[in-house]
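Re: folding output
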Amino acid sequence: MQDNSSTGRAGLRVLGSTIAGSWYPATAEALDAVIQDCLAKTPEPKGPPPNILILPHAGYAYSAQTAAYGIRQILGAPFKRVLLLAPSHRAAISNGLVAPESDAVSTPYGRLEVDREAIHQIAGGMDLKCSDGVHANEHATQIQYPMLQYALKDFKIVPLVIGQMDPLAARRAAAALRAIVDEATLVVVSSDFTHYGEDFDYAPFPAGEALSRARQADFAAFERIRAGDAAGFADCLDASGATICGRHPITVLLEMMPPGTALERLHYATSSDESGDDSRFVCYLCAAGRADWDGRRKGGDSAAADKEADYLTPEEKRALLRFARESIRHVFETGKALASDHFAAEATENLRRPMGCFVTLNTRRSHDLRGCIGEIVAQRPLYQAVTALAVHSAFGDRRFRPLEPSELDGIDIEISALTPERAVDSWRDIEIGRHGMTLSKRGRMAVFLPQVAPEQGWTLEETLTQLALKAGLRPDDWRNGAQFTVFEAIVFGEK
């Protein structure tokens, strides 16, 4: 891979641009002309500046006008740090993040300092590597620098390239990134939307319909993004096959966002808007939103949250267990899952509160595990999480064959409603019987609920050995170089 870094004044290592003069103009004057022309065609912003942007990353000739709709919103905003999440187009990255090695990046506008302190902090909670080679060959990060420099005059950049991520790794990355995000931070996701054409391995629509059908697919995916629904976004892309290259950075963003954060679509365009050629094109979308990051951190990292009271009433627990059983039974009767809001009319304020949770199925006679699926990070109301995860536990846990109708009456359902996870400095901070835990190392991750160790009679060391094995690591890999988070659970079941 190409490495375009150099050493500047006082030994400062600077990563130069490899796309200036091709993807965007090579001089500051020419950049000004292009950006100012695009901004002149965008509407005046309304309200305070957003602290989340989704911006396209094609060459400026194609995508700058769409990006300008977002950039216009942050002109002169007082952000001191930009967290930039971008997909990897050339490097194979699995369940990790890649930051640059250099202390700064450069464009025709000059040098932009990398926030190395923030990168070090992120590395404490997530598998993170540093490579100037990866960043020198990644246009999805570099394309954003000039417009950000134009809009924000005094800030540092945290550019991260993200490859493929499984759901647990995405949640782990989100937790690590939330630790550096505050009200002075702008979060930018770099992503184009549908890539259409035979060379993109995506051309399912008849000639003459491709542009409108791709637009429909993109808008359907954005509805899940707008709602902050990471699981729904993944399901939408899996169902449509839509080729959104920033799928994994967007998923990490959705896992980061506090409940109630909404994104607004500002502009949408395609590379074929002028030509009308629907045999090959790329789609560009710009969106903006505002998140209450400080509220999320206070709710997720405080000692009070870690010792959260059991606020669910006995009636609410019985209702959730009924929702879970009825959701599974409905699949047997109709072959389809219930709508996510099927129980909305019965859901109390507590049950509408977003919480992570697990749904566990055990055989009643032998007490053998029959299925267990969950989500650690709160991303939807508790009643919706329970109904969806009950179905996943019954039919989607790959460790077991799908549940049969004859088994349903012999299954006990257990629900674990989770407090927000928080990182701990050492495995010695984990308390058996109180804490659920995650272990991550070398891109691998596993989780145990709080009740697992007591049920098995394990010591802390035995629990961590089993957790390492579950993650696909060596038995003693938890002793050095592993990262841990803990959470608590409100656990209740039919029995």
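--- second protein (sequence, then structure) ---
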Amino acid sequence: MSRIKSCIAAAQAAGRKALIPYIVAGDPDHETTVALMHQLVRDGADIIELGMPFSDPSSDGAIIQLGAERALRNGAGLDTVFSVVSQFRQQDDSTPVVLMGYLNPVEIMGYPAFVEQAAEAGADGLLLVDLPVSAAESLLALTQPRDIDVIFLVAPTTTDRRIAAICEHSSGYLYYVSLKGVTGAAISDTGEIAGRVAGLRAQTELPIMVGFGIKDNASALAMAAVSDGVIVGSALVQKIGELSDTDSREASLIADKTALIAAIRQALDSKPA
């Protein structure tokens, strides 16, 4: 059983909603990324989505684009991503890490080399935003023997035919995009999201996580009420961006920047699953 499946099963058994923060590897630097990951676990994160910095993150809004730019300016690339995960694993062998990003850097490295290095580093999942499920067969053939879950996005505009294929080939969890647009936009119709998530449940037994637009306790609670967990990205990356304005990397300052996650964890745990 993969770390992701075990983690979510344990959360569900405890009546607990999964909390999945997203940060960019190398933002603002390698060592701080590792420290942020450990702090997020202390704050109550169940799974960490680690962004692979890319120069053209087309599905991301300005905040995550700036995070990627900060990382790239510091020389971050796939080597940084693997190194961050490997260093994190030296102290934490249980928290699942999902690598999230775009297809271009992975194709340049080559699927076999990428999957091998991701597995050796200790990554548990892979989400490539612009990889259609119809083109994922060769990647899945490499990830499945290494117990790396491949996660796909389901958007409000995803067709029924494509949803069926995604449900067939996904593992770990489904990532439901709560809105039409890029990361950082606001959620506008909770009722519509609830209906679409209910439709997904009729097609798969995979856990369903909701992301995009979750930025505070209220939005997290609203989305957790209709799903198995929530993903928090832009609001956290925006706070991490403030670390670039100081030379200090003290633990107390890092904890201050991730306090949003601790607050959401407390809010989620205060409500019955």
